Amino acid sequence: MLCLTDACNTKGVWGKGVAAALKNYSPSAFEYYHHHCTHCKDPTRSLNEHQQALVGTCLLIEPYSHGFSNTQHLYRPPSPGHKDNRTYPKPTTSEEEKRFWIACLYTSNNYGRKVDPPESVLKATASALDHLDRKIDFYEEILERKTGSLDRAKRHSNMIDETGSSFVSEALVNSLEEEVERAEIGRCYAVKINSGLFGVPWEKTKDVLMTGKVDMVVVSPPDGETKATVQGQGVEY
Known about the structure:
alpha/beta, about 240 residues, elongated, 6 helices
């Protein structure tokens, strides 16, 4: 597994650049992101307040559950009285989409001519990376527990119970193996975030990444074979 990382606005728009490519590649992930941006769980907050609160956070979209497929508890229809009365289907997840996580760093409240000032974008980037790091730690704890369960299941699968059957079924072992695969995030990959549509000089964002805890591999879109040559504390480019 690997984690595709991009800087996003909070308006639910993946219109250009890498975001547009992600939208085309994983429409279901876009539906997940759009829903997260445009539906507020707190009835005391307006939509604008909800979106402003997202700045500086990270939305981590799991593989196997891009959109709302296979995780029914994550799907929430529009709240009663909400102006948006559309129905939201639960899109399916293709086999290709199941290969990666997507980390949406909310580094600007808006986009285009209304994009946040560079200083605000950089501050939000540092906060969002910290949020991503805490989420990665959480999933690593889950991975450790699931790996332990898988190891125990494999050991017991060789045992025979009083009926002559395996103590643990092959189906259970296969299911746990899939759970372990799903819980592993792997390396985070990104392009030179903030430097395109958000208009922040790359060197400034790189400084933020260098002081962060997230291991990030920064690649150049025109050359998909660009390899890391220099390592920093939080970025490899």
